[in-house]
Amino acid sequence: MQINLHQTHHTIADFSEIFSYLEQQDNDGVFSNSINLFPELFLCGYPLQDLLLTREFIVNYCDLLDKIKLWWSSKPRSNSVLLLGGLSYEIREEIPYAIQNVVYELSENENLKEIYTKCLLPSYDIFDEAKYFTPGNKAIVWKYQDLKFGILICEDMWFSPHYKIDPVKELFEVSKDQKLNGIFNFSASPFYLGKEKSRINRASQISQQFSNCPFYYVNRVGSEDEIIFDGGSFHCNHEKVLSKALSFKEDMVTCTISEAKEINGNYLEDVAAHSFETLFRTQLDYTLEPPQLKKLEDSDYECILHALNLSIMDYADKIGAKKFLVALSGGIDSALVLTLIKLFLRDDQEVEAVYMPSQYSKGLSYDICKELCDNLEVKLTTQSIKFLHSAIRNSFSENFVELSGLADENIQSRIRGSLIYARSNQNGSIVINTSNKSELAVGYSTLYGDSVGAISPLGDLYKSEVFELSKYINKKFENLIPQEVISRPPSAELKENQEDSQSLPAYEILDAILEGYLSYKYDAQGLIKLGFLENDVNKVLKLNNFSEYKRKQFCPIVKLKAKSFGFGRRIPITKKAPRR
Amino acid sequence: MQINLHQTHHTIADFSEIFSYLEQQDNDGVFSNSINLFPELFLCGYPLQDLLLTREFIVNYCDLLDKIKLWWSSKPRSNSVLLLGGLSYEIREEIPYAIQNVVYELSENENLKEIYTKCLLPSYDIFDEAKYFTPGNKAIVWKYQDLKFGILICEDMWFSPHYKIDPVKELFEVSKDQKLNGIFNFSASPFYLGKEKSRINRASQISQQFSNCPFYYVNRVGSEDEIIFDGGSFHCNHEKVLSKALSFKEDMVTCTISEAKEINGNYLEDVAAHSFETLFRTQLDYTLEPPQLKKLEDSDYECILHALNLSIMDYADKIGAKKFLVALSGGIDSALVLTLIKLFLRDDQEVEAVYMPSQYSKGLSYDICKELCDNLEVKLTTQSIKFLHSAIRNSFSENFVELSGLADENIQSRIRGSLIYARSNQNGSIVINTSNKSELAVGYSTLYGDSVGAISPLGDLYKSEVFELSKYINKKFENLIPQEVISRPPSAELKENQEDSQSLPAYEILDAILEGYLSYKYDAQGLIKLGFLENDVNKVLKLNNFSEYKRKQFCPIVKLKAKSFGFGRRIPITKKAPRR
Known about the structure:
The structure is a homodimer.
Chain A: E1 2-7, H1 15-27, E2 34-37, H2 55-72, E3 80-92, E4 95-106, E5 111-117, H3 129-132, E6 141-144, E7 147-153, H4 167-175, E8 179-180, E9 182-187, H5 195-209, E10 215-219, E11 221-224, E12 227-230, E13 234-236, E14 241-244, E15 251-256, E16 261-262, H6 298-319, E17 323-328, H7 332-344, E18 350-355, H8 363-376, E19 379-382, H9 386-397, H10 405-427, E20 430-431, H11 437-442, H12 463-476, H13 483-487, H14 500-503, H15 507-518, H16 524-530, H17 534-546, H18 548-552
Parallel strand pairs in A: 1-2, 2-3, 7-9, 9-10, 17-18, 17-20, 18-19
Antiparallel strand pairs in A: 1-15, 3-4, 4-5, 6-7, 8-16, 10-13, 11-12, 13-14
Helix pairs in contact in A: 1-2, 6-7, 9-10, 15-17, 16-17
């Protein structure tokens, strides 16, 4: 016997694709003489949100279960086990009163038997599991032939004091008089930087608590709107990782079954950082004066490239788009987005770049766009908005309104938003958004203007990280991105000689304040104590509060960090708070 | 002694406003010889979402509690009780591990003592309370002098089988050997049509179960983004409503205290429609052939007027806007929105209407806008987009792209979106969205075009209800809305002789299918069985699925129904589903 970790990549609710995968693996003999672990909610996908409550979904899901039962019973199944993450519905009079997140067993003894229910339902940040699921409350030891395994589903291994029970501790209690061959964790664990390391650390810690018992972790892969599942399934014990699946790709890992372990001694209260607590880190790692954002490493940027690749390609594939469209400005954000798309592009896909200069655009901006597109071998179209801008100004003048200030700046951005979407409509491409996290945080963008797009690859990277990622790409791919766009001062180019630094603190300051405010939950006083200028802090916090309405109408932001804008951060627009 | 129901109207997190209210009422002698009930979470507002987890909010909230304690202890407080909804934080090492939704007592005996914790945490639809709160699990009888009362917080009175305990039943158990003078319910209960009636029915039912014990219900009033709290606090027993506060307005009701009631007999399992179940109604009330949307009554439309009034005015006041801007098209939606704003307008506010005809706009459209604005005495500005539209076409032609079909239609809508926002930027007004629920459901609108706006008053009304509400207003206010706009066939006027009926089923069919699909959770097969044409059903469901990405970027929709688009309906964009 061996253990196979099936790190699968399916579209949510694509039940025929899911069934085909099982059939195919079966036909290929993969299930013979093996215990096959499939990710949390493998049978339906995750996160499903309100799809879980729609009749269409429920009917199709139940049909899948019936189909699987029939298929499984169609031939003898000795020495072949599947443990599959799925849903269990309790429906009374067509109303789903309880839904559980469970593991099903398929074996010679069982045909889709629920063997375990997830106990810890994460409901912080992007998670809403308590909204949909009814928790389990019981640890079990699963037995097959003479083998014994502990079972956990995802969050179950991340106890935090806000939960009522610790499933790892419960498992320890129920298994301490038995020899365990291993512990299984079935996951659909969203990616953010550093997450993989913390999963392996935590698994290794649990292995230690269970006398170096092997730990088998199987994770989903794929991207759903803003959430990436990075896979990276692994088999480890306390000492080392014994085998590991690819990250960000479908994969299968075959693991050996070790000798059974007697569980010794007492359960040690663990000291790990829990999943929930990462949202309330209380100590900022600001070691330089003035406080600065902690720099990411090259390995982080490499990881970000893979994450963005999976996310953007999955989004396009799942909505059925083959063409991408990027509006270049001559600035770093759009240059980086175009470069990323080009790096990710498959042979069956296309990308087009459009540069839409106004009267305020500098010659350098065009030169940058041209050089970038030459480097990338991407077609560049230039479509000036000068005439349209003056036509709109005239149209207002005729009505005795003179566009000025912000109105005159924003209209340029909105003309571009309109033009890029006209092009997208005409050629069936999807527009990739180019906003970064710093802009989003302070509302330094035009709603329906430069903030448009189907999905935002940079919305979780601060401006300073956008620069660093660009430099990393240039190191890796021989200066694809023109040096001038990295060295020139950022500007929206919506009025004469405009530079971002006229409206905002320098980005290294802005980004450090934002990280302290958003990820570390510092308030204004706390930030000022850290060494930031009171003026800067107050300005940034006011801008952040005031721009909530813009973020409400923003497209999905690819999540790369523990704390991101989007579905994982829900702040009312109408509240008492400092105003501009 | 008497009981005062304080139906308060405050901005969330406006702690100084909240404290001032208490001080003012105290100075006015309102608290003397009375028990004063304040709504659920009165001390902070609701819903707070992630504000609950920000340090700024926590610090300011705790400051308020300290300030209240000091104020309460500053003078003798005999025969004066305040029962206030608020939060109780359990914080360890600056991390909020548990937050409870509680009632505090202020009296001569107690200074902000937590006396009860909410047991049922609604987490369906717009509600996310299990995400933030730790539930209570104990019913109590609250005693003051020789008076005894049962306590419930909002959802506690709406037991449904998906909850583990029934707080009303628990209350029955703990109070059956005691004489009760009444039952208090502290609510922050969101409005939708029919909600007030169901609250009173349920309270009356509970009163019956408790031997006709008086029921005191105090509700919050005000509007937060998309959610309206309608007030309507009341005092009832099984036989009748004894007193009732205004709906949609701040108010205070003074009630008498009745003689204590001995609780008799057994608790009757109630048969009421529960709050959760309204989202899964299984029987469509389609009595006509072919199935038709159930018609709302005049009293519903009157209620909708009040609800929209509160919502739009609260939104504007809370973000500090004094000017409104509406883009008129010559169609019914925008005509109705302008009429509503004008009806709601206060003396310190202004509204402006803009008509932006294209080459496809009919003369009748202008005539309608003109007549409407004359009727309403609103300034109408006409700003043609003909020239801009052809300038954009030319700009593309120069790049060898001919705008056609959808691209050419959408660009007209986006020019209008850009122009209306330029005007809004220039004069500091907020743009009121004009989309209706039918359009939103099938994506019959242009993203960043006619879908723009700060808030959507009609996004929860089907097109047929938009017509009915317009007719109701015309009946009430002497034909404010020109008859022609009600009788002409709906058209986007984005190409020659376009009518909505060319792309969509007739609205009475479309709306009935949508209501069956969205509110009653029928799937395609179920709808076809009801009598709808298979073609219509498939088309509508495909369009609905395909347009999820548009709804994700839409502004807050004022919630008027049990099932609305927006925060209460969360469907992933990337999923397996029928595509166009």
